Write a sequence for this structure.
């Protein structure tokens, strides 16, 4: 595989952009090698500047559930661009978007649009603190909620890959307000609540962990969080930035039947453009400016291009049978990959179109067990697949995504590639 142009671009980029990238995991530091610089993408395929084409399971880290450059989405964005790209004033599109979200996610009475998942979780936390008058937050080790100061403690993914789970630059005093619990470990949450009764504003959780690899919630875990928070008067915040409209049209909360107080969305609802949203019960959302005392704002919030891309995506996803198709494709791929890699100790997880294979003999249920993975073996697996034209995230601790654009042939080619690479592991 020739990567000459990508290598030259990386050399140049590194002189101006830290590590040559605008988001750390893109730099391939943990798997080695030079990241392909992408020229274009279409459907399930992504093509680099040297002309190599890959079957893509990164999906821009989640948003591209319809595949890349879906004709209807592209057409809608073009038409919207001709009407102007930003007004800083309310638009009919935002009303339509709110209607779609509120109808799809029953726990969200009200919603406000922002421009990234990070902004959504940051705003949700401030609101939870403002509404409850409490300061402490509970988060789970290995869960990532964007690069919000309060939430960059034991935050999985990027930090986990680089072995720096806690970021520098976060004031000690602020980090102290963040309490860490164990994913799938209700006892750790109960212990925090009994140590800090009436002090915890919110528990924030990825209802399906997607940033320490993919880890499903144990039966009763989310129900338990609902019970514990309700009893103490703390809010339960579901960070569905990945899972929203991914594991079903009502997200993970619909799939598991849980009623959180607040929800954060992003990724898919932007259809590949920069978008986030947060919302929840009306009585909580009433505390947001200009109705209430919790300030939150955004020059580009509800941006017409971004909302158009998201709205078009949601309307396609609403069509009958899409999630069944994703479920079936996900299952087909997982089964094929499982057979192709038989004999290699691996923990295979899948929910719908989200999947992850941990190279370990230990069942993976939380951060500590995820860390038992053989990341060197993963790096070999990753490089092998890349040179076979299969594009997965460059870290053991990420989630893979199937899109509606993947064909059976794409999946078969992937399974065959896995079988060849598995022999060299
Ligand atoms: C990606 C992600 C975020 C952050 O979203 P950005 O748009 O990257 O700021 C927050 N929470 C979860 C669960 C995510 O996966």
């Amino acid at each position: 595989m020739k990567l000459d142009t990508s290598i030259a671009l990386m050399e140049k980029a590194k002189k101006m952009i830290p590590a040559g990238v605008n988001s750390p995991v893109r730099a391939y530091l943990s798997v080695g090698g030079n990241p392909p610089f992408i020229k274009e993408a279409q459907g399930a395929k992504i093509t680099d500047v040297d002309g190599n084409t890959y079957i893509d399971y990164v999906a821009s880290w989640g948003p591209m559930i319809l595949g890349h450059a879906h004709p209807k989405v592209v057409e809608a964005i073009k038409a919207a661009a001709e009407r102007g790209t930003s007004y800083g004033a309310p638009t009919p599109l935002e009303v339509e978007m709110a209607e779609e979200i509120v109808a799809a996610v029953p726990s969200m009475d009200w919603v406000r649009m922002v421009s990234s998942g990070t902004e959504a979780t940051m705003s949700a936390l401030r609101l939870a603190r403002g509404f409850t008058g409490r300061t402490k937050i509970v988060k789970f080790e290995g869960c990532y909620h964007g690069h919000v100061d309060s939430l960059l403690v034991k935050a999985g993914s990027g930090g986990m890959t680089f072995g720096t789970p806690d970021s520098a630059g976060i004031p000690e005093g602020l980090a102290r307000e963040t309490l860490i619990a164990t994913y799938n470990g209700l006892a750790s949450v109960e212990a925090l609540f009994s140590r800090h009764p009436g002090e915890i504003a919110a528990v924030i959780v990825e209802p399906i962990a997607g940033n320490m690899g993919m880890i499903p919630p144990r039966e009763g875990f989310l129900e338990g969080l609902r019970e514990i928070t309700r009893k103490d008067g703390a809010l339960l915040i579901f960070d569905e930035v990945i899972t929203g409209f991914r594991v079903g049209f009502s997200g993970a909360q619909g799939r598991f039947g849980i009623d959180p107080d607040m929800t954060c969305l992003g990724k898919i609802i932007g259809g590949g453009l920069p978008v986030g949203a947060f919302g929840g019960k009306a009585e909580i959302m009433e505390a947001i400016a200009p109705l209430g005392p919790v300030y939150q704002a955004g020059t580009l919030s509800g941006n017409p291009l971004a909302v158009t891309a998201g709205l078009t995506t949601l309307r396609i996803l609403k069509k009958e049978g899409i999630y069944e198709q994703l479920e079936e494709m996900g299952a087909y791929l997982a089964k094929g990959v499982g057979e192709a890699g038989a004999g290699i100790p691996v923990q295979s997880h899948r929910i719908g179109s989200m999947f992850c294979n941990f190279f370990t003999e230990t069942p993976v249920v939380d951060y500590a067990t995820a860390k038992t993975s053989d990341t060197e073996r993963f790096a070999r697996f990753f490089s092998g697949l890349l040179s076979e034209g299969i594009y997965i995230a460059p870290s053991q601790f990420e989630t893979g995504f199937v899109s509606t654009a993947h064909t059976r042939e794409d999946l078969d080619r992937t399974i065959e590639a896995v079988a060849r690479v598995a022999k060299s592991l």
